[in-house]
């Protein structure tokens, strides 16, 4: 046994298990050699198993599994420098050159029936792509397929139903094409995808370029499908997991139960997550130790599991009764799921194939509030216009909706309670991805998968039943950066919303008081209001944006001056400039001011460096409000910005420090407000609200100018409520 384990370890093969398994692995390696796949970054980590006619990699890495399936592997000679060969001479007589393994053809199970889901018309189908496509880029095809329920694989393996390509590409010797021909996969025209999005049950042979159509192509349409298997213990019919670290889940039928606290007042209630894109996992596991009656007499352990963003999953309750038994069971479950002892939870180390605890801000626990505070008879003393905008930015339904648009659902995961530390870790992972995308690392493909698993495990993200997206290009990276920026702002809103309310005070008054910023309604007949109205009218082309922007209200913002603004406000010129953002970000912005991206954030996504971006035409800032026809009310900021002597650029340039004597960056563009029509505001601030004219600049790529500052040398001046009317 010891000799077997030694030779297996020497060759990087798993050496755990019974004698039969160890003998089988050693014999297989001696005869056929050590096989490694192209996916694992280190051949010694690779754990390939040969079964059902192909190799499957079962290597468990820190943030996911390799998951490779196929026959394209590298065979290495078995390392014989172990006592096994010294003590058993007959083994040394076996040829050192590995024997070629006879590979069997893998046949897919026939699919007799198929029910088409109009919302997910590609459900159950697996695609890949090779070579140049006439209609779409590969990234666009991937997005189209996965958003319609299909699976998209980068590599060509036997699981693929359709390889999307073209007739020209089929005639080439591309590795993917040759692999598909070897596996007799269906190589089809891109037009088949468009047809499948519309209907099912048609003759697919006209779209076949080479190979054989998969079984699903011949399936008969049906109205009935077998129900997916569920865990027998599953009782959950809930549509969402609402996690509150201090709350007892509604499934527990103990009305006086409480979450157990130790002597350090630490709650024994944890939420664990695990994402593995290769296997399609995006799951959570909740573990809770509870006191049945709150008197310390009887205890139990509650466990809940499922897929993030779905109703898939279940729960179970174990009631060992006495405290020591319940605690022991709780700690056993924690060790089993995380690979860490409960006593070592504050020095947590992520283990391969195991869950990671979500860091939760305990200060934001939901508290029981006296019913008087939400009594509709309590008067609101705010100006109705101020009350309206306060209700808009503190609206929980709005926050939930906007988070869902960012693939976040605050009802399903404690995203409003994620710690700043977790968000910073998320930024750090994105920085690693950014660096990797710019590199020629030969293991880039695998590492991007690993880093994506890490990001989604740290930042729980709602993909529903779809496979998590690999963060493998700058567009997806930018989207995740926006997600984290909004998380930082919604964390502020969540903190304020969860503060103790004031008995006898209307909730809107309370929220305004929490905001810590004064909003004064502007007279709609004042000079300032009329200038803002003109600034909007002259600053956008409805045909360029596909919507018109109309001012509905405006407020003077009064909050403490930013120290950098106070120190630099003598520098001229200062300009009144636009900044747009999602509604869910405004509580954080008005409470804390505009922020510069943290050091942990990657450099990509900030075209001119990490700074605060402004515009002198509203059509440049408005798209960052992300308006829709259904949600067509937004907010824009006008800030007093110290522009000073700008450093002018025409093309993207990542700026970490301005040249000496420069105070900001001005990105030149094709269009500018007519400088001869500027207005001058309070304290001689320039308001570039003139009509649009050609700038006369050559070799510029932006339609409208941008201004970037690298310290908080601006002051929030006006909050402008607008309505977007789509053409």
Automatic annotation (TrEMBL):
Gene Ontology BP annotations: double-strand break repair; protein poly-ADP-ribosylation
Enzyme kind, highest EC tier: transferase
Main location: nucleus
Keyword match Metal-binding: yes
One Gene Ontology term of the molecular function aspect: nucleotidyltransferase activity
Boundaries of every BRCT domain copy: 117-209
Catalytic activity: NAD(+) + (ADP-D-ribosyl)n-acceptor = nicotinamide + (ADP-D-ribosyl)n+1-acceptor + H(+)
Keywords annotated in UniProt: DNA-binding, Glycosyltransferase, Metal-binding, NAD, Nucleotidyltransferase, Nucleus, Repeat, Transferase, Zinc, Zinc-finger
Coiled-coil ranges per UniProt: none
Residues of the PARP alpha-helical domain: 379-498
Domain WGR: 256-355
Highest taxon of the lineage: Eukaryota
EC assignment: 2.4.2.-
CDD domains named in the record: parp_like
Subcellular location(s) per record: Nucleus
Keyword Oxidoreductase set for record: no
A Pfam family that the UniProt record links to this protein: WGR
GO cellular component terms attached to this protein's record: nucleolus
Domain PARP catalytic: 506-727
Family: Belongs to the ARTD/PARP family.
Name of the molecule in the record: Poly [ADP-ribose] polymerase
The organism of origin for this protein: Arcella intermedia
């Amino acid at each position: 046994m010891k000799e077997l384990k030694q030779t297996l370890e020497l060759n990087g093969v798993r050496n755990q298990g019974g004698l039969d398994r160890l003998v089988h692995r050693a014999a297989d390696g001696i005869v056929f050699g050590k096989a490694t796949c192209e996916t694992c970054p280190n051949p010694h980590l690779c754990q390939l198993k040969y079964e059902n006619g192909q190799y499957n990699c079962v290597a468990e890495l820190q943030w996911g599994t390799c998951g490779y399936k196929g026959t394209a592997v590298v065979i290495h000679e078995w390392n014989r420098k172990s006592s096994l060969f010294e003590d058993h001479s007959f083994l040394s007589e076996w040829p050192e050159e590995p024997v070629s393994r006879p590979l069997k053809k893998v046949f897919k199970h026939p699919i007799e029936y198929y029910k088409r889901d109009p919302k997910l018309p590609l459900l159950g189908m697996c695609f890949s792509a090779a070579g140049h496509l006439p209609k779409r880029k590969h990234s666009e095809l991937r997005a189209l397929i996965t958003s319609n329920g299909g699976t998209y694989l980068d590599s060509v393996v036997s699981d693929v139903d359709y390889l999307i390509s073209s007739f020209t590409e089929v005639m080439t010797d591309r590795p993917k094409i040759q692999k598909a021909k070897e596996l007799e996969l269906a190589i089809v025209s891109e037009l088949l995808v468009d047809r499948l999005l519309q209907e099912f049950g048609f003759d697919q042979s006209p779209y076949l370029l080479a190979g054989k159509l998969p079984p699903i192509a011949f399936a008969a349409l049906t109205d009935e499908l077998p129900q997916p298997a569920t865990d027998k213990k599953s009782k959950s019919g809930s549509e969402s997991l609402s996690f509150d670290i201090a709350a007892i889940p509604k499934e527990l039928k103990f009305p006086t139960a409480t979450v157990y606290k130790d002597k350090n007042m630490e709650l024994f209630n944890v939420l664990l997550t695990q994402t593995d894109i290769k296997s399609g996992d995006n799951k959570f596991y909740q573990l809770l130790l509870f006191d049945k009656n709150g008197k310390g007499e009887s205890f139990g352990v509650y466990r809940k599991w499922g897929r993030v963003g779905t109703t898939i999953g279940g729960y179970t309750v174990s009631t060992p009764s006495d405290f020591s038994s319940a605690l022991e069971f709780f700690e056993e479950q924690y060790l089993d799921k995380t690979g860490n002892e409960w006593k070592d939870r504050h020095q947590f180390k992520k283990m391969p194939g195991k869950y990671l605890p979500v860091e939760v801000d305990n200060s934001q626990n939901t508290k029981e509030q006296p019913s008087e505070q939400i009594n509709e008879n309590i008067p609101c003393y705010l100006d109705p216009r101020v009350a309206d905008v306060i209700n808009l930015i503190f609206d929980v339904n709005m926050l939930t909706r906007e988070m869902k648009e960012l693939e976040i659902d605050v009802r399903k995961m404690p995203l409003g309670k994620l710690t700043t530390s977790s968000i910073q870790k998320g930024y750090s992972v994105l920085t690693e991805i950014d660096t990797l995308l710019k590199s020629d690392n030969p293991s880039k493909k695998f590492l991007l998968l690993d880093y994506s698993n890490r990001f989604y495990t740290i930042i729980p993200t709602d993909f529903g039943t779809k496979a998590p997206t690999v963060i493998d290009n700058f567009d997806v990276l930018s989207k995740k950066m926006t997600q984290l920026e909004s998380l930082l702002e919604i964390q502020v809103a969540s903190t304020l919303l969860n503060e103790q309310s004031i008995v006898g005070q209307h909730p809107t008054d309370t929220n305004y008081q929490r905001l810590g910023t004064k909003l004064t309604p502007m007279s709609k007949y004042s000079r300032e209001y009329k200038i803002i109205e003109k600034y909007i009218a002259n600053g956008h082309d409805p045909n360029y944006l596909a919507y018109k922007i109309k001012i509905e209200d405006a407020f003077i913002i009064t909050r403490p001056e930013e120290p950098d603004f106070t120190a630099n406000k003598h520098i001229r010129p200062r300009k009144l400039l636009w900044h747009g953002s999602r509604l869910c970000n405004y509580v954080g912005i008005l409470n804390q001011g505009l922020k510069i991206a943290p050091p942990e954030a990657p450099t990509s996504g900030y075209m001119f460096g990490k700074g605060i971006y402004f515009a002198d035409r509203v059509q440049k800032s408005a798209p960052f409000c992300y308006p829709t026809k259904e949600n067509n009310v937004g907010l824009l900021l006008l800030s007093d910005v110290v522009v000073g002597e700008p450093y002018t650029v025409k093309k993207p340039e990542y700026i970490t420090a301005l040249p000496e004597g420069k105070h900001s960056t001005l990105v030149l563009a094709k269009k500018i407000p007519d400088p001869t029509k500027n207005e001058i505001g309070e304290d001689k601030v320039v308001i570039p609200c003139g009509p649009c004219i050609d700038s006369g600049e050559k070799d510029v790529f932006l339609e409208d100018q941008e201004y970037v500052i690298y310290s908080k040398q601006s002051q929030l001046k006006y909050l402008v409520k607008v309505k977007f009317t789509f053409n």
